[in-house]
Amino acid sequence: LAKRHTVTVKVTQGWLRGERVMSSTGITYYSFLGIPYARPPVGPFRFKAPQPAERWKGVRDALTEGDLAPQIDILRENIYVGKENCLFLNAYSSTAPCEGDIKPVVVWIPGGSFTFGSGNKDMAGPDRLMNGRIILVSINYRLGALGFLSTGDEVIPGNNGLKDQVMALRWVQQNIAHFGGDPSNVTIFGMSAGAASVHYHLLSPMSKGLFHRAIAHSGSALNPWAFDDSKIARRKAFKLGETLGCRTDCSKTLLEFLSTITARTLVNAVSEILADEEKIPMEIYFKPTNEHSNYMEDTFISAPPKQLMSDGNFQTVPFITGVTSMEAMYTLLDANERPCYYKWTNDDFEHILTKILNLPENKKKENNALSSKIKNFYFKETPICEKTKQRLIELYSDLLFVEGVYRTAKELSRKSASVFLYQFSYEGEYRLNKIFFKEKPLPGTCHGDEFIYFFDAFFTEALRLNFDYECSKISSRMINMWTDFATTGKMADTEIVNVIQGSLRGKKVTAYNGVTYYSFQGIPYAKPPVGPLRFEAPQSPEPWDGIRDASSPGNTAPQVEAIILNKYIGDEDCLFLNVYTPKLPSLTDGEKKAVMVWIHGGAFNQGSGNEDMYGPDHLIAGDVVIVTINYRLGPLGFLYTEDVETSGNIGLKDQVMALKWVQQNIAKFGGDPNNVTIFGESAGGASVHCQLLSPMSKGLFHKAIAQSGSVLNPWALVTNPRERAFRLGAALGCHTTDSKKLVEFLRTVPPKELIEAAETSRSPEEMANFDLCFTPCVENAVAEGDEKFLPSDPHSIMAEGKFNQVPCIIGFTSHEGMMMLRPLNEKPEMIEMLTNKEDSIIPYTKSLKKNTTESKEIGSKIRKYYFGEKYICKETLPELVDLYSDAFFIHGVKKCALLQLSHSTCPMYMYQFSFDEGLEFVTQLLAGSRTPGTCHGVDLPYLFKGFYTKQEYLKPDTDHLKIVKIMVKLWTNFAKTG
Question: Which GO terms describe its molecular function (predicted)?
């Protein structure tokens, strides 16, 4: 099992232990689950307003969610679930508590007819909202009778579920700063009953000052299902008592009786009452009601919502509300269960309308006239039947949702200009309609369809395969619009740029240092390399219609993320890049800026160029355009059968395609295509060096920086790619020597299985020598129309001067080999092998065969040079770090520099990075332990802002920020002038 990366935070009740987790798309965030925000509402506290949460001793685990409220889970075979001790919330943040910028807070109030649902991850999975811009809080609150029963007097005033929400918002005000959230910038949002709850908080004096913006999806306090007058609420409470055997008209007697009934019995009794009544759409038994202000101090609302709205008694905060195009589509589920549904609806239309609209039953004549007008408006002279079901959906949508939502927006806009109204009409393959009506999905978007673009839920699992590229973009667009609103109270500050494939919508961003820049993320630079294009060279990207959202990163390549979670992430459709520019071009200012293209490292088998690792905030201050790219990794990027069946060095060819895209499009972002610098670290540094050697890259860049990586490092070039390819096939069950059969088989294997098999197919000796399975190679043969990226041995290319001669920077950190300690710490047997096997200490090279007299003799010399007479053990790890630094990095880097310098007239600069103060946790993350010196990769936080950037590092006059400024100036000056 992967080790949990936990973090503690102190709140008003005590200490909490949360953990760092990773989303399915590779985004890391911090999770704190099951935090009690109120005292358990049990025993004498049942039917009472919530009480403040109690303190605890020690550190409380916040690693699992709290219980949901007692309910019948209608989404899971109508089973009873939950416990009365349910007042918990969950908090999620993309950065560690109190690190990074203070972020806006978004509080999710779940829907579910005030009867079922929860804010837990199975109903509201947060992954999509973890884009680094907000702190997300989701809450559970009391439901049904336990949350909304009212006797219409001081005994049980009602609205306890809404008062629970108030208590949760108070907790947020008191504690969210400890998680990096801004208590003065809180947005509440919800859907359905959650949206009606949001509206109620606008109306309640109890909620004043607890939030600053609001979003209500498909729900309003003015919807007929969202409110009962106190007289109706009282009648319902006593009917529940009567159903359970308590016939009384005394509120105290009823309270005493109901306090003895189990929660399960209460929940089941309400279900029985509803089952005995007519099946009216959106029939909710217990719901919010008006309390009489003379009964108690803490009155949630003292009058019906309609009256409060017309009187102007509401908070004016920026507000978004809206509906889907066919909200009430779900009502036709009853038609599938009841053969006479349409006839019953047609014959009892007046009665149904009376119930839905809460019309007075003693005014039959007026009710009949109203129902006739409504029926004629929607159906004319046609009866309600199967053929007119679309009009029936429109009728129920208007009555149950649209009219109330629109009226709410209209009334609020009388006092506030910041009211935004939307209709969600996107009919993608990923919609609830597909679950409700599997065989014949109806046109339109139903109630809840927009919800699944914000959150993952267990009931959308069946639709997961339908979440295609278009759905992903709709999701990103909505999330970015909503998070922009949560940040500013306005809709997105966006910019449109036209590239060869179409139009892109980016966003304007302000960095920690006050520098503003424009961000365009997730731009496809090649056709998705899926299906028959797996193992093929990249193809040119396809154009798109309309404006493509570029406000969030594209997928990472399939990989096992080994630094944090040791978990599979990514998607084969991964050929995306990101562009960050300090200024977009204008008609009056045609000056182009230097371009820096970042090629990420990760041993050619993991990593990405996305902003969670490589945010541009530092470098953008150097007044350059930054491009970061994703490319194929592992066997999907570097498998090669040494014949025409596969294209070798595909990952490097992806990089070439990205550089071609830059040449064609970067001027649109204010960049100069004639002044492009490629730079990278580790495998990215080796990639930069490979681009220097490849004829395919000629003219695509003009300067190069290779950090801690060179093609002459022993891990950077595989000499037996064919053997590795067939070994992978055998590990997956394909035993053949035929390349065509192997490739056909491997194209059928899911990427997750390919990636995991590649990792497990390495021998212990290969692991000890850090011999990577799939890396660049010399290409012996290519298919017709394909090009050789590396046509001959890199050493020969350099010795003959046949490389792209441009100004270069090349260098390393003082103790590169420290990162090799992590696998040694995780697998102590590797140290034992290094000690007992004489030549195991020799790095893998093409010219030296192991287990020979020569190899043992060389191994003995190396051992004596670095260790003298000492054994290789934990006490001699510093010496082992020196050996690994020289063997795996420094020797190859220096050799490259000397070879290029001998055959080039262009400037060559070499550096050593030795600053090692303040980033101990990064070293710990990369190396698993710490010895003196600067580890491989520790130079990166001085060029990029990522998840590893602590807020304290960004304070003025810190040594960290001083080094950042020096590095940025050196790198960007080189990019500008060479």
Answer: carboxylic ester hydrolase activity
Number of CB atoms found within 10 A of residue 4's CB:
12
The model's confidence at residue 704, banded by pLDDT at 50, 70 and 90, is very high
Q: According to the model, what pLDDT value does residue 958 have?
A: 83
Maximum average pLDDT range among 239-253, 477-491, 774-788, 807-821 = 239-253
Tokens 């049980």 appear where?
Answer: 156
**Is the CA virtual torsion 231, 237, 243, 249 positive or negative?**
negative
* CB-CB contact of 225 with 288 (8 Å): no
* Amino acid sitting at position 84: E
Q: What backbone torsions phi and psi does residue 331 show, to the nearest 5 degrees?
A: -65, -25
What is the pLDDT at residue 1?
A: 42
Within 8 A by CB and 6+ apart from 573, the residues are: 469, 528, 529, 530, 555
| Average pLDDT over every residue of 276-284 | 71
Residue type, 517: Y
Residue 901: CB atoms within 10 A of its CB come to: 16
Question: 944 with 601: CB under 8 angstroms?
Answer: no
How far, in Å, CA of 932 to CA of 911, rounded?
19
**Amino acid at the residue 130:** M
CA 533 – CA 543 distance, rounded (Å): 18
* 368 or 230, greater pLDDT: 230
Amino acid (1-letter code) at residue 146: L
d(CA 953, CA 708): 23
Write out pLDDT tens, residues 931-964: 678 888 889 999 998 877 766 667 777 888 899 9
Amino acid identity, residue 791? Answer: P
Average model confidence (pLDDT) for the chain? Answer: 88
One-letter amino acid of 939: D
Instruction: Say if residues 475 and 564 touch (Cβ distance below 8 Å).
Output: no
Strands 28-36 vs 88-93: parallel, antiparallel or unpaired? antiparallel
CA dihedral 394, 395, 397, 402 (to 10 degrees): 110
Query: What domains can you pick out in the chain, each with its CATH number?
Result: 5-322 (3.40.50.1820), 494-977 (3.40.50.1820)
Helices and strands in the chain, H and E counts:
31, 26
Cβ proximity of 123 and 74 under 8 Å: no
pLDDT digits (tens, 9 = 90+) for 507-534: 888 888 888 899 999 999 999 999 999 9
Q: Which of 889, 649, 653, 956 is nearest to 777 (CA)?
A: 649
CA distances from 633 to 95, 557, 792 (A): 27, 6, 22
Q: Which amino acid is at 958?
A: T
Res 146 pLDDT > 80: yes
Q: Provide the annotated active-site residues.
A: 682, 816, 936
Cα torsion at 543, 545, 546, 550 (round to 10°)? -40
Backbone angles phi, psi at 878, to 5 degrees: -60, -40
The tokens for 571 are 């998607």
Residue scoring higher pLDDT (274 or 662): 662
Please report the beta strands in 12-156, taking only residues with DSSP state E, as ranges in sequence order: 14-22, 28-36, 59-61, 71-73, 79-81, 88-93, 103-109, 135-139
The DSSP-derived string for 514-570 is S-EEEEEEEEE-S----GGGTTS---PPPP-SSEEE-SS--PPPSEEETTTT-EEE-
| Range 200-209 burial, b when 16+ CB lie within 10 A, else e | bbbbbebbee
Burial class (CB in 10 A: 0-12, 13-18, 19+), 781: middle
pLDDT of residue 847 exceeding 70:
no
pLDDT of residue 359: 82
Q: Where are the alpha helices (DSSP H) in 639-694?
A: 650-665, 683-693
Which residue, among 219, 217, 223, 227, has the nearest Cα to 106 in the 3D structure?
A: 217
Residue 324, strand partner residues: 424
pTM: 0.60
The whole-number average pLDDT for the span 707-726 is: 93
**Residue pointed to by tokens 């009056």:** 588
3-class secondary structure, 737: coil
